[in-house]
Write a structure and sequence with these properties.
- With 89 residues, the chain is mostly helical.
- It is 72% helix and 11% strand.
- Strands 1-2 form a two-stranded antiparallel ribbon.
- Strand 1 and strand 2 form a beta hairpin.
- It starts with a helix and ends in a 6-residue tail after the last helix.
């Protein structure tokens, strides 16, 4: 299974590298207020993919932190119940 995984990784790398070599034509990305950025197409795709992935990770962080706080609170309640005297139960 390990060899298949590495073979797929190498194949993906070769495909993406070929994509980058074939798309070296410069493109212009125009932003607001007249600013623009000129770079090879592969670079633009890579940058915007990275920005999108980073935005996705940041969006997930709020969910993970909320879940972590809830788990810590439940552990605290569980410890409090475990140390409570037998009479109070």
């Amino acid at each position: 299974m390990r060899y298949i995984s590495w073979a797929l990784r190498i194949l993906l790398f070769v495909l993406l590298f070929g994509f980058a070599l074939k798309n070296t034509d410069p493109v212009v990305v125009r932003f607001y207020l007249g600013s623009q950025w000129e770079a090879p197409l592969a670079m633009v795709v890579l940058v915007f993919f990275g920005v999108g992935a980073l935005a996705g990770v940041i969006a997930c962080l709020t969910y993970f932190y909320r879940q972590r706080r809830e788990i810590l609170q439940l552990r605290k309640e569980l410890r409090a119940k475990a140390t409570a005297p037998e009479d109070a139960r």
